[in-house]
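Side project, low priority. Logging it here so it doesn't get lost.
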Amino acid sequence: MIAKYKTPFLIVGALFVLWGVIGLFDIGNIPYAGYNTDGNNTVTRVREDSPAAAARLRVGDYITSIAGVPVEDTRALAAMPRAAIGETRTLVVEDRAGVTLAAGEEGAPAREVAITYAGLPGRDVALGWAAFVIGLCFIGFGVLAYLRAPSRASTLLALTGLCLGIAFFGGPYIGSLALRQIVNSIVLALIIVGLAFLLHCLLEFPKVKAIMQRPHATKVLYAPAVLMALFTVWLIVFLPRGTSGFNTLVNALFGIIVVLYFGLALVALIHSFVKATPDERSHYGLNLMLVGVLVGLLPMIIGDLISIFAPRVILPGVDFYFLTLILIPITMALAIMGTAEAPAKAAPTPVM
């Protein structure tokens, strides 16, 4: 089979990698505050010896404004330029976690927290480089598998690699709000659709699953991803007011879509493994692929589930969970290329 998408894949892959390389040159300019929120402006983590810790920001603080801009004013926040290293911005916070309101009281007392941004600590810089390598593996191994063994499955793997690979590239800082919105819309839409490509690939390899023979199966597979991608574009372009309820809904939707596709991809692979004979598992590389995808996905699935149902729970080592994802493109590419190079032992009939 001729790799008819060779040129487009190589061009797009090269452009994405170039984007990531440019982002690496900007890593020294990224400001560091040292705190995390639950996506709804409540501080869930303050790192030791960070600018946030020095400013006495506390876990449980609810941020009401940043540099004078209310947190619900999504458009004004998005229009703010990136903080410069050494710049101080004042946050107004309320200690909602530590205050019990009496009858008639309007709210928790507010206080100001002045955070002076620092450069990224060495650990975060190293993680940024690690993320770049993972993105490179997604793109490189996906395209390599397609070039070495052109097929429907390898095409889907290449598309998965291109779409998910860019998720690990920070890219350069874009000062223009309009251009930043366009780029963010494209990147997030690609990432979401990439999740669907991953699931589709595992439903096609090593044998086409019976469910894919049903009418409109492909449309049903991609519909949630496309709808979520469109919703993401709407969020970034129109920047609706970020109320507490709306933020909670958006965070839940994103978590659910990631868990849904990652979870179903894992189920599809386990189904292939269980239904295959020992010889087929060896021939199709299912043993290697199962270990790679299982170890690669489980930490992220667990982390996303925790973020949905218990966003204030910080799991040990959670900052490093994404590193296991590097096993996915490597093991999947090796399995697909190995299958093409080995003599076929069974026809690719649908698996029930």
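Brief comment: Residues 344-349 have pLDDT under 50 and may be disordered.
Revisit when time allows.
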